Amino acid sequence: MKLFDVYPLFDINIVRGKACHVWDEQGTEYLDLYGGHAVISIGHSHPHYVEMISKQVAQLGFYSNSVINKLQRTLAERLGKVCGYDDYQLFLINSGAEANENALKLASFHNGRTRVVSFGKAFHGRTSLAVEVTDNPKIIAPINDNGHTTYLPLNDTEAMQAELRKGDVCAVIIEGIQGIGGIRVPDPSFMQALREECTRTGTVLILDEIQSGYGRSGRFFAHQYTGIRPDIITVAKGIGNGFPMGGVLISPMFAPVYGQLGTTFGGNHLACAAALAVLDVIEGEGLMENAAIVGNYLLDELKKLPGLKEVRGQGLMIGIEFDSPIKELRSRLLHEQKVFTGVSGTNVIRLLPPLCLTMDEADQFLERLSKVL
Predict the structure, then answer these.
(1) What's the pLDDT score for residue 312?
(2) C-alpha angle 173-176-178 in degrees, rounded to nearest 5
(3) Would you kindly state where each structural domain of the chain is located, as residue ranges?
(4) Which pLDDT belongs to residue 116?
(5) What distances in angstroms separate CA 302 from CA 1, 212, 309, 346, 351, one per listed residue?
(6) Which of 86, 148, 263, 282 has the most other CB atoms within 10 Å of its CB?
(7) 3-state class of 119 per DSSP?
(8) Number of Cβ within a 10 Å radius of residue 345
(9) Please, which pLDDT band fits residue 169 given cuts at 50, 70 and 90?
(10) Which CATH class name applies to 14-46+287-372?
């Protein structure tokens, strides 16, 4: 049997990682400014993380959600306090797409509606409803194209208000910062108007913080820069530092019903141990504050470099846009300068490093980028 060939691969086999660095099987070291799609939040192979999941798997890796799991309760309490939503409820699953699936399902249960508003260049996942609210026709199969979604321009307040005032919109789903869409930050005034209109029309507001959350922006959630509180927040990626995990943070306005949502693997003992280790390190090592400081430094310094069209982002979620395609530039960064970066579309390099990135490592990246510009 062969692998189903859907990923264009770099001819590099990464076998080891430490903090913001990874090594291939030849022993070549790379600076990791991408963190495996923003998944590595506290750094590769953090010793506390390794210790906690090692101890947990030696004791119990999994049992079903038909029994009490005190690790889930501890995680919910800790996460609520750290992120500022201690009055919300937590449902644990396995991935970002699954988080958005459950969020949309819960919204429809709540108000009985079926139409969703999403935004241009949005990405919310590759499954069923999640891909239907993703603005990329190439990955929406006919079976997923069910006419539930209306796409609007990001930051267009008038268009948003006109659509919601039709009275039939189940939910609005929006990223705290658009990731795959090119690191585009919603305007605070737009977000505030969106919150007001959702409340006025009985529309559920879902904040997809899967890529922009868990401290990456310099605050726990990117939407917290705008002063709003959504009805549902979805998280994944950095929640487990590489262990597959996702979550839905649910407003008190939703009353749970037995059997309404469910999962086999979600919130298992090993995943909870990983997630608790992540919170320990984020708090104990001040990684949210570090993301803000180092991220702001990178944003400021990148704007000084020649040949860039625009630099966007918050904290350690940064987009570097060029006037021309960056495929060759990114390849040179990887193969000549040994730096992993991401991409958005054809013209944007995307930076999503571990939140422990140091000033010295930021300077290393700036130096290496300058060499290929």
Answers:
(1) 97
(2) 85
(3) 14-46+287-372, 48-284
(4) 98
(5) 46, 20, 11, 19, 12
(6) 282
(7) strand
(8) 14
(9) very high
(10) alpha beta
